[in-house]
Prior knowledge:
This protein has helices spanning 6-29, 40-54, 69-107, 125-140, 143-157, 167-176, 179-208, 214-258; strands at residues 113-116, 121-124. By secondary structure, the protein is mainly alpha-helical. The chain has one domain. β1 and β2 form a beta hairpin. α7 (179-208) packs antiparallel against α8. The mean pLDDT is 81.
Amino acid sequence: MISLTDAQLNTWLVSFIWPLVRILGLLMVAPIFGHRSVPAQVKIGLGVFIALIVSPALPPLPDVALGSWHGLHILVQQFLIGVAIGFVMRVAFAAIEAAGEIVGLQIGLGFASFFDPQSAGQTLVLARFFNLLAMLVFLAINGHLLLIGVLVDSFQTLPISPQPLAAKGFFTLAAFGSTVLSVGLQLALPLIAILLMTNLALGILTPSAPQLNIFAIGFPITLGVGLVVLDFMLPYFAPQFEMLIYNALKMALTVIADLRS
């Protein structure tokens, strides 16, 4: 008859539950993994599968009971670490969506929106298109595998311990959030510049040809020029998206290092 002591049972549980919570925190918010179209059963199953692989190679765990206050404190910490890693990549995708929003508004497609179940709100068509393009680039460069690799490496860089997380890591994460607007503007800047020149040309044309109705011809000209320029810019977006994803992965490593107290 096999008998288990409370200490052995607690050791087995914490070596599985604590890394599982960190992994599920990432899968909940990370792009593609955290999408609402992915069933919860798939996320939990993937998290359990990764936890079973990671748990045997974990550094020595603290001798803390899972149901104690210190055990619950460690549980919350692991969840916050996983969410922080996934949120870094979410910020990168938010910057790409912001670029799509800016481009759509400049072209004149602000009315072309639909309900996005992921954000639970109205989203411009171009923002959704940019997001889908970024997801394809993310999968093409094996970004999902690299993100899981960063998560697995975090157990060595930031091992499971009752030590509190450093506030510097959260400040680093908040500072990275400022890239949403700056990167979005950088991606949309070429199209903004060309549309500005188009609007200046229309403004010069109006006094010289007052018989032309600027409101009747301005919108189709701006829309046509914007779509043509967007068609020429599309091949250059993929390398920019790839660079942004790699920078987000590096930032995730920085956040993990800064969370160490």
